[in-house]
Amino acid sequence: MPLSIDDKVLELGYGRGNALQYCFDRVADGNGVVFGIDRSPYMQDCALHRFALEIAESGRLRLDHAPDLRNLPYPSGVFNHIFHVDLFYFIHQELMLEVCHELWRVLRPGGTVACGMQFDRLKKLSKWGVLEESQWDPMRYMSCLEPAGFVGVRIDYNSDSKTGEYQLIRARRPETDKAFEDPDETMRELELQIKKEMMVAELMKSRRKLTKEELRFLDEELPGRSQK
């Protein structure tokens, strides 16, 4: 993850906080801020004690609790990077796309998301009955990233002397984003879509035939759609 000293980075499921420490050290000399969020109040309490000094004195580390990753307590477009390790295995598949949508929302255009895995370790956990292989199948996660708006979705195979072989799922939010570049166009598109939905609802209720003008209106391209 190309973390610079001025980046805002979020770790999902920080556990003991080892990765938080690494990121904090990277941004300590800049204007960056490290955020961590965890479902477990116990892990949050442990991390708050571990990083009490950094939180109190630097203002560059913030720890939050979120029982539902579909509703993160952050504004849209705030993070340069989001990363997590051993997290998506515990997200129900029917919720995965909504979680990916939420990650997309809080990332800045051009921001990246990364997920670390170790297949060898996960295979052992499956053999011991701790995890089902279907839980850590990377396609469970990767298949939801692109529908959520991410691009460049891929899995990289890496190795180093400390951790051995490991895998990284990577994706990024597109740098070009109409919601950030042209909010007026986005609002016009939303208004047109609402008008169409209201017209369809009225027609279904009245059961009358469409006029030529109404047909042309319903066939009209939404702003920006014809360029895709």
UniProtKB/TrEMBL annotation:
Residue stretches making up the Methyltransferase domain: 9-111
Transmembrane segments: none
Molecular-function annotations in GO: methyltransferase activity
InterPro entries xrefs: Methyltransf_25 (IPR041698), Methyltransf_Superfamily (IPR050508), SAM-dependent_MTases_sf (IPR029063)
Gene3D superfamilies: Vaccinia Virus protein VP39 (3.40.50.150)
Protein name per UniProt: Methyltransferase domain-containing protein
Gene this protein is translated from: Acey_s0227.g2817
